[in-house]
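A.,

Following up on our hallway conversation. C-alpha cells first:
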C-alpha cells in the first residue's frame, strides 16, 4: 500500500505495510533492516507519551508522526535499544522506515546523505 505524506509543502509517496492490532505492539522488534515500512493508524488523535521503544530493534529507523491528513508533525531517527521515544504533539499515525538503501530516496527527503550514512552501518 502507498500513502502520501506532506512535508514542507511537498508530497512524498511511501510504500507501507499497515499494522494490525497484534503487530502494532511489536513494530520493528526482532525484524531485519530489510523489512517493510510500517504504518500505525490509530484512527484518532493520540496524546500519550512514551509511544515507541526500540529495545529489541537492531538497526536505526526513521519515525514520522502524522496528523489525520498525513501532514508530518515531527520526525526523528531512532537508534537501536532506546527505551522510550515520545512525542508531545497530538498525532494520529506513525510511519517507521528502516534505514536501508532501498529506502534512501524517501529518507533523503527528511535527512541529508551525511546523516543517513552516519546512522547506516552494515
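Then the amino acids I'd put at each of the 122 positions:
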Amino acid at each position: 500500500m502507498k500513502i502520501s505524506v506532506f512535508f514542507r509543502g511537498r508530497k512524498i509517496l511511501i510504500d507501507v505495510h499497515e499494522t494490525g492490532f497484534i503487530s502494532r505492539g511489536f513494530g520493528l522488534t526482532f525484524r531485519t533492516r530489510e523489512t517493510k515500512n510500517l504504518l500505525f493508524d490509530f484512527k484518532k488523535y493520540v496524546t500519550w507519551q512514551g509511544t515507541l521503544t526500540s529495545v529489541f530493534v537492531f538497526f536505526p529507523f526513521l519515525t514520522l508522526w502524522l496528523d489525520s491528513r498525513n501532514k508530518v508533525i515531527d520526525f526523528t531517527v531512532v537508534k537501536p535499544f532506546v527505551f522510550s521515544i515520545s512525542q508531545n504533539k497530538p498525532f494520529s499515525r506513525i510511519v517507521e522506515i528502516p534505514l536501508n538503501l532501498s529506502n534512501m530516496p524517501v529518507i533523503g527527503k527528511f535527512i541529508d546523505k551525511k546523516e543517513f550514512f552516519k546512522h547506516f552501518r552494515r
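The first helix runs from residue 21 to 26. Curious whether your intuition agrees with the design.

B.
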